[in-house]
Amino acid sequence: MTITAPAFGVQRAPRTVVFGAGQRALLGRHAAEYGSSALVCTDQRLAASPEFAQLLTDLEDNGLEVHVWSDTSPELPTSDIDACFDAMEYAGIDVVIGIGGGSCMDLAKAVALMLTHGGPIDQYYGENAVPSPVLPIIAVPTTGGTGSEVTPVCVLSDSRRELKAGISSPYLIPSVAICDPELTYSCPPSLTASAGADAVSHLVESFTAIQRPPSALAEGRVFIGKNVISDSYARWGLGLLATALPIAFEHPDDQEARSAVMLAANAGGYALGVAGTAAAHALQYPLGALTHTPHGVGVGVLLPYVMRYNAPARVEEFAEIARLFGVPKAGNTQQQALAGIEAVDALLDRIGIPPTLKELGLAEDQLEYVAELGLRSARLIDNNPRPLDVDALLEITRAAYAGDRTDPF
Ligand SMILES: NC(=O)c1ccc[n+]([C@@H]2O[C@H](COP(=O)([O-])OP(=O)(O)OC[C@H]3O[C@@H](n4cnc5c(N)ncnc54)[C@H](O)[C@@H]3O)[C@@H](O)[C@H]2O)c1
């Protein structure tokens, strides 16, 4: 091994992460450590399930008074946040539990924030606008994808804005994450694919993000760029997903694959929560608003084209992705890097992510608008390994519209 520079890394994480089939049975015991009154944020699908009834009984058996909010919508509209906050403002909540996909976990983060510091929610948009700790949050994911159970991010849809908005603060990292792959067994293939593509994009974008000097921490950034710790999570997660995601998609009952996908999503959360994501996420914010496609599908469509744009700045990383995907080593480093990019393309194709923006329903005359709005996500744009301006974003969106996957070198 050649050491070229002193290592620099940062890890931010929940106090406790429990992973494994059946581990949701620990929810009540953990929640009881944080008080006697719990708000559970979930959605109507989960609220009607026998698993949810068991979780409620367990919470009550551990002495908690439980308030259930079960009206979370996908992609988390701000109206859901406001309605939940209005209903719970004076309920004396001690701990907020998000059980569900990214939308339910992010609702728990947003409501924990507002119950502590008040509304309106938009005063916290951006990085480090949360003034101090918020109520304890416990996250229990039911998709293998977002990694929100360990991230400092809450993503929401504000109908007054043309983009999705993000609140990024280490105070939003849940205190406890309980990751039970059994809760993902009910995900249909389309959800396995969209959430899985989200995890792929978190891992690739954080592994290939900009690299900053250690002083980035002193600048007070939440997202400091790739580093030795985020890289180790990215390697781990990509290696797991390369094998497990197609199996979980094609054989939803394969328990080992479900477990590996959830573990990889968790690794993606650690990686992105410190390193940050980049161009694919910046462009997805307007794309999602225009096409109403699930977040993971949008980033999955964009990723092949963002990887090609970034390839000249991240040759070594893409060559390493080829090795992580088990591609036999052949040719020079650039050829290996192309093989890495094509291996990620093949994974996304195999789980049915559409190959072009055209197939997502975007019109060609909307490409400039997507590029212009994408540029407004400054934290994501700054995090890209190659500089981005509106022309560069237009180049990526044009390629993504036409399906132009030519050799980037
Ligand atoms: N906070 C973060 O760090 C972070 C990271 C990435 C994405 N996100 C956000 O997360 C959201 C997407 O989350 P998601 O992909 O998990 O989907 P989701 O939470 O939006 O849920 C999508 C649908 O899947 C259903 N669902 C959830 N779990 C299921 C299960 N086990 N079986 C059957 N159906 C199930 C839900 O009921 C819902 O109808 C987006 O708003 C995205 O922007 C947040």
Overview of this structure, please?
This protein has 2 domains: 169 residues, Rossmann fold, CATH 3.40.50.1970; 214 residues, Up-down Bundle (Dehydroquinate synthase-like, alpha domain), CATH 1.20.1090.10. The chain has 16 helices and 9 strands. A 6-stranded parallel beta sheet has the order 1-9-6-4-2-3, with helices on both faces. The chain has a 3-stranded mixed beta sheet with strand order 5-8-7. The longest helix has 23 residues. 55% of the residues are buried. Bound molecules: nicotinamide-adenine-dinucleotide. The site of nicotinamide-adenine-dinucleotide has 31 residues, from helix 5, strand 7, helix 6 and helix 11.
Key attributes of the depicted protein:
globular, 10% strand, Dehydroquinate synthase-like, alpha domain, 409 residues, binds nicotinamide-adenine-dinucleotide, alpha/beta, Rossmann fold
What is the topological layout?
Elements lengths: L15 E4 L7 H6 L4 E5 L2 H4 L2 H12 L3 E5 L8 H11 L6 E6 L1 H16 L8 E2 L9 E5 L11 E5 L6 E5 L7 E4 L9 H19 L7 H4 L9 H23 L4 H21 L3 H13 L3 H16 L4 H10 L8 H18 L16 H8 L3 H4 L8 H13 L7
Parallel strand pairs: 1-9, 2-3, 2-4, 4-6, 5-8, 6-9
Antiparallel strand pairs: 7-8
